[in-house]
Each structure stands twice: as structure tokens, then as C-alpha cells.
Hints:
4-stranded antiparallel sheet, mainly beta, 358 residues, 45% strand
Amino acid sequence: MPLKSLFLSAVCVFAGIALVSCSNDDDNAPGGAAPAASNGCYVLNCGNWGGNDASLQYYDYATGLASAPDADANIFAVQNGAMLGDLAQDMLWVGDKLFVSVSGSQKLEVLDEEGRRLREPYLYGGEGASPRMLATDGKYVYVTNYDGNVYVYSAYTAEFVKTIAVGARPEGISCTNGMLVVNNSGDLYAYNGTVSVIDLNSEEKRDIQLVNPYTASVVCNGDVYIIDSGNYYDFPSTVYRVSVEEATVEALGFSASAIAAYEDKIYYVNNEWSYEVNNYVASPLYSYDTVTGESEEVLPAEAMTNVNSLSVNPENGDIYVGYAQYGVLGTMNVYTLTGEAKGTFTVGYYTTGAYFEN
């Protein structure tokens, strides 16, 4: 029986169990392949440092079930007979392909929609090389790398095209209106990060000086929204709006540790480290209206403890919140735009988020 059929059969069996059980264990079907793109989304799990336990899951909208989160039983392992690797960083679902960066293993995987390798992974072996975040304009896939470059691949053939030099330790990346915006986090512990705004036709690059622009980068209404993480001491994290036309930034007056975008709104949470309690302190989940400039609470702070990822389904606005704690598998909760609980399921270690088809 094909792996897709095995997964669908497992979903049918476990759907019946879920009706009479409240355990998170019943919110995961065994491993196997994912069904059609329109039926669900993928979840990528970073794994533990040096653990070679990154994993790839699939969440089915109709049943509320996810495939197995275990490193040796997740979709990638079942489909390819190998582990995904060490420290999965980001993923992009473009058409019928999945691009997955695995920073610890210094590679980029290219998979089909059911998680099978379409080719041998791209390996990066240069000094400081580590693939990080991904973006697309539909024609190309752009991958930041700690070696100071953005690597460009064809979204159609997955073939390597070229590199674009940016800044030191590039992280978050977005593409809009023919422009590429790259967060260069800067030299280690130097807090000299920049944002590069690049015209994709001419490759003209303009740099904006900041402190520590890190991974977060989303597009909303043609502008790019990023988080400058600050210096973790006397310069707090700050959310900026980047105007790609003017190559300027505007501080929005609030801090965040994770952001996501849907229609005219930015969703953000700010889990900050507190030296007073020697732990992270959660904030509520807010929505920020990019048109009116007003913020509104969506979920209370108690629902945001140990948040590790934040994603929004571009089709219906469902909010996916990933939670992580040291040494145990994580959890992902699904909420509606108004903050109503919609589902929960077990994910792997340190989930990086939910990923939807572009």
C-alpha cells in the first residue's frame, strides 16, 4: 500500500479515537506521507543542538491530526530512510516543492509534496556557512547563509542560479514588489547589524544600519516588517516597518519576539528574558493594524507561555502557536482569528512553525 494511503488510513482510525479522548497523544497519527496540499500544512521542528533529530510533520485540517513528530518516524525519515539532520531552520512550500534549510547539517533539502527527496541536498562547506531563512517571488527561491550571501535557486527546477552578496550573518528575508529585504544580524556580539534592500533587476543594494535584526521578516501590504532583537540588555527588541521603495525603516513603538502577517494585520507576541525572575516573561498575543496603527489583544499572556513559533494560515487566518520546553516534545495550538481554540497536537523539539503552500 502506498505511503499516502497508509497515512490516510491512520487518519481515519485515529479520527474515531479523537472523538472520545482528550489526550494530546491521540492528536498524532503514525508517520507516513502527507495528503494533498489543500488539505493541510507542514510543521518543521528544529530538534536539539547536535541531536540529529530535526523532523517534518503534516497537519490535516479536516481531522485535526498530525503525523508523528519523532525524528525516526516523521515524514522525512519514512520517505527517505534517513534523518532530516541537525537543527532544521526554515522551510518554504513553493508549488509542488518543499525547500528545507538545515543549519547544523549545513544543507538545503529539496523535496516533493510528500516529503521525498527530489535530488541530493545542496551542501555548504565554506567558512561560517550555515543556511538560514527562505523567501520566494514565485520564480526563484532565496536562501540566506551565514557566509554572507543569499543563494538563489529556480523555484521550478530547484537548480542553483547564483549568489547575491549581502552582509554579515544574514538571517530573515522577504521578497516583495521586485525587491529583496535581508536582515544581516552582524558580527557575533558586535550588534552592528544592517538591513539590505536589494533591487532584484539591477541587484543595486542599499543598507540600513540597525542593531541586531534577526530571523523574523514578513510582508504586509507591500511593506516588510522585521524585528531588531536589540542587545538583550539596554536596547530592547523593536518592530520596524521597512519601506522597500525608499529603503527606510520606521520603528512602530512596540517589542516582539515573534511576528506573523495576515491581510492588513501583523500578529505579534513578546516573550522577553527577565533577569529578575531568571526566566522568560510572556506577553499577550496582539494584532497590529497596519492601516490604522492600532493594536488589539487576541490571546491572554497565560496562553503565550513558552511560545517558540507563530504562524498564520494565509487562507483563513487561523493562528498556529508552537510551544517548546527543554528536553520534551512540544505542542502546537490552533486558534481562530478571534482567539477561539480550534485544535492542539504534539510536535517535535523546538518547532519552527507551520508552513503553508505559496
